[in-house]
Amino acid sequence: MNQSTHSDDPREGHHLPTARSGAAVHGRSLSGLRTPQMRLIWSPSTSNAATVTMIEAQIIRGEWTDPDRGKVKVKDYAETWISQRPGLRPRTVDLYRWLLKKHITHSLGNVAVGKLSTAMVRQRRADLLGNGVSISVAAKAYRLLRAVLMKAAEEDHLIQRNPCRIRGAGDEQAGERPVLTVDQVLDLADRVGRRPIGNVRKLSTSSYRLRYQRNGEMRTHPETFATRGAADGALWKLGKDGRAGCTQDRRFRALVLLATFASLRWGEVGPFPLNVDTLETGS
């Protein structure tokens, strides 16, 4: 009489094929796995049951990744990452796409996400710096790639860990900006908005004649010029040298002084209604 026996073996019910045919867990093919653990246990002398048990344990712990999912290219995955990011401003999107096209996908775009290694990322960063890319831009590109691959590792489980593990690669170490002295600020304020008084006219000979104001009188420049640009350049040089009268829109002078001494940004001082008479009288 056949007696029905109950087995507590958790592997019961799983298909345990021979080593020649490969293994499968929950319908997933394991023949394509290339992890170090699989290379150790996947041999004709090792039980297929041990293979299944180990992979099941990795799945339960959330450590197993399907190698087929990691075949997506870095370029395609990064572009999808940018398009799916909520709340990005248009300028931020433009920056991300520029960094991706200019500094990331040039050499890493066709690499599969699952094949990307820390050594490849390190070499790409070294190439950027070697080609004259600033540390600031290289750091921005590295942080973008790190954020993209963080999602691939932690949310989409395409890779086991993020290959962007280079210490300090995402840090920007920009030098301290020079600060203008008070005299330099005042000189800049006097120069901004100044325009020399004069005009340029085209002659019948296709040359250009320059007339400029000096001491309240209009004078004609002794030379003629082949292009309008050359005549304009001569007029500005006369104004710079003090040989031609100048006008100044004093609103620009007020803008420079206000932005400097009130520590205002362009977005704050640009729309500011500047009334020169009010500024001078203090009313």
TrEMBL record:
Q: Where is the signal peptide?
A: none
InterPro entries with a match to the protein in the record:
CB, DNA_brk_join_enz, Integrase_recombinase_N
Residue ranges of domain Core-binding (CB) in the record: 72-153
Residue ranges, annotated region (Disordered) = 1-29
> Which regions are flagged for Basic and acidic residues bias?
1-15
Report keywords, A-Z: DNA-binding
Task: Tell me the superkingdom of the source.
Answer: Bacteria
Q: Name one GO molecular function term.
A: DNA binding
What's the protein called, per UniProt? Core-binding (CB) domain-containing protein
The organism's lineage is: Bacteria, Bacillati, Actinomycetota, Actinomycetes, Streptosporangiales
